[in-house]
Amino acid sequence: MTLQEAIASVRNIDDSAAAETQRRLDRLTKPQGSLGRLEELAVRYCAMTGERKPAVPRGILYTFAADHGVVDEGVSAYPRDVTAQMVRNFLRGGAGVNVLARHAGIEVRVVDIGVAHDFEVLPGLLDRKLMKSTRNMAREAAMPRDIAERACAIGVDLAAAAAGEGAGLIGTGEMGIGNTTASAAITAVMTGSVADSVTGRGTGIDERARQAKVEVIERALAFHRPDPTDAMDVLAKIGGLEIAGLAGLIVGCAAFRVPVVLDGFIAGAAALIACGLQPRCRQYLIAAHRSVEQGHDVLLKHLQLNPLLDLELRLGEGTGACLGMGLVQASVKILTEMATFGEAGVSERSS
Ligand SMILES: O=C(O)c1ccc[n+]([C@@H]2O[C@H](COP(=O)([O-])O)[C@@H](O)[C@H]2O)c1
Ligand SMILES: Cc1cc2nc[nH]c2cc1C
């Protein structure tokens, strides 16, 4: 399926599956509504997939890795080499995302879509490299438009692969030194916010460095004037390859009716792009958590997404998404494994 075909095939979620699921939840042995947002999650899961009695979904999480030319402007607390080094760490299973994925029984797939390093053949690494890093958005477009489109198409293909293998839940992860700058720039444009209000400290820069980061973003936005009504234009001028891959993954998930669990700020920026390409994508999104990055809350509100968790996370990789995926699986188990009042012989409400 091409990117354009995926965009064209996203349908509205199934309201009748939602209503039926709510009716079943109301017959389970608990005061009505007492499982709160877990019930809402089960309802949304069924509306997205169209299933009435879903199996506990198998979860696959894609962690896209890429580098950013804008790191030359001093916007991160860490050197760009960390991106490639962390890719090796992911493949060895030693990163935060590996631990939380194992905890929730989720498979992590690592995709090199733009790391500035030539890896030897690494077992387990999905080599989809389109460029060795984006270019510096402060001076030129981050990537040509056709590369942005190809990066999105890679995401669609990976969504199709996971859906074809029976994944019922897909998580978003990323690794890219400098990518909170690209994400803040995208958030400013797509939500109509000033850069200062959506720019945070990323990996841990101080307030002075954050202000310099704001200026870099302001300069890039003034120079490129990205068109918020053309998400591909935004992606090409100020985005990142991993963000483009994630945006395509989200569109693909929506096209295949697989619920997608968003991680933090960078995943949220990718969701803004995906919803710019196809607004119905929003219906298939579950926000796992609210990141410490100040722009994340702004974009979640813009997308009208209510995050499940607020754990002050700011690691990325897909760590928060793994925790959110575990909650989605728990909500499906509640729906399918809990006894009804009738089955258990428990008295129903008296007034
Ligand atoms: O997910 C988040 O909300 C998040 C917030 C801050 C930082 N990160 C991670 O940190 C890296 C980007 O930070 P920076 O400072 O290099 O732009 C990148 O690898 C992200 O995965 C992730
Ligand atoms: C060590 C390290 C791990 C990361 N994982 C995601 N972003 C990261 C940034 C750093 C610096």
TrEMBL record:
Keywords for the protein's UniProt record, in alphabetical order: Cobalamin biosynthesis, Glycosyltransferase, Transferase
InterPro entries reported for this sequence: Nict_dMeBzImd_PRibTrfase, Nict_dMeBzImd_PRibTrfase_bact, Nict_dMeBzImd_PRibTrfase_N, Nict_dMeBzImd_PRibTrfase_sf
Keyword Iron: no
Keyword Glycosyltransferase among record annotations: yes
UniProt-listed Enzyme Commission number(s): 2.4.2.21
Active site per database record: E317 (proton acceptor)
One Pfam family from the record: DBI_PRT
SUPFAM superfamilies per the UniProt record, alphabetical: Nicotinate mononucleotide:5,6-dimethylbenzimidazole phosphoribosyltransferase (CobT)
GO biological process: cobalamin biosynthetic process
Involved pathway(s): Nucleoside biosynthesis; alpha-ribazole biosynthesis; alpha-ribazole from 5,6-dimethylbenzimidazole: step 1/2
An MF annotation (GO) of this entry: nicotinate-nucleotide-dimethylbenzimidazole phosphoribosyltransferase activity
Catalytic activity: 5,6-dimethylbenzimidazole + nicotinate beta-D-ribonucleotide = alpha-ribazole 5'-phosphate + nicotinate + H(+)
HAMAP family: CobT
NCBIfam families with a match to the protein in the record: cobT_DBIPRT (TIGR03160), PRK00105.1 (NF000996)
Family: Belongs to the CobT family.
Job description of the protein: Catalyzes the synthesis of alpha-ribazole-5'-phosphate from nicotinate mononucleotide (NAMN) and 5,6-dimethylbenzimidazole (DMB).
Record-given protein name: Nicotinate-nucleotide--dimethylbenzimidazole phosphoribosyltransferase
Species of provenance: Nitrospira japonica
